[in-house]
Amino acid sequence: MKMNISGKIRRRKDKHAPEVSKQTGFPSAATHYREATIDLHTELIHNQDATFFIRVNGDAWSKFNIYHNNVLIIDRSFRLKEGSLAVIVEEGEFDIIRFSEKQVQPEFLLWGVITYIIQSVS
């Protein structure tokens, strides 16, 4: 048996060239339909200039289902209504209350109304 030696081994050229995929076969009925992504800013924020995020440290407000590391979305443009959760300033300290017109409230400065509480599930 005779062997031919031709020098260096050449690399094999790639058969697949990276490019935009080409459609083969019948088109999908769903190619024209594309669902829009969910933008949490448009869903959760009503007034961007008056909205703030606060991360909670500690479990002092667990009676309102607000726990350590939760994120509160607070809108300062909202009016306080019956049953609303609100961030207030009382004696120079931030606090959270559930507003009630029936109950006598000590004097406080309203900082903003809590619109959403974001909790991690892990």
What are the SSEs and their pairings?
Layout: H1 40-44, E1 51-55, E2 71-75, E3 85-90, E4 93-98, E5 109-118
Pfam families: Peptidase_S24
Domain Peptidase S24/S26A/S26B/S26C: 22-102
Region (Disordered): 1-28
What's the arrangement of strands in the largest beta sheet?
Answer: 1-2-5-3-4
Q: CATH topology of the domain at 40-118, what is it called?
A: Umud Fragment, subunit A
**Which superfamily, in CATH terms, is the homologous superfamily of the domain at 40-118?**
Umud Fragment, subunit A
Task: Give the proportion of residues in helices.
Answer: under 10%
Low-pLDDT residue spans: 1-7
What is the CATH class name of the domain at 40-118? Answer: Mainly Beta
Tally of alpha and pi helices = 1
Mean pLDDT metric: 82
DSSP strand tally: 5
Strand portion:
25-35%
Which structural category fits the helices and strands?
Answer: mainly beta
* Radius of gyration from CA coordinates: 30 Å
**Biggest beta sheet summary:** 5 strands, antiparallel
What is the string of SSEs from the N terminus onward? HEEEEE
| Shape-level CATH architecture of the domain at 40-118 | Ribbon
- How far is the first residue's CA from the last residue's CA? 69 Å
Shape: elongated
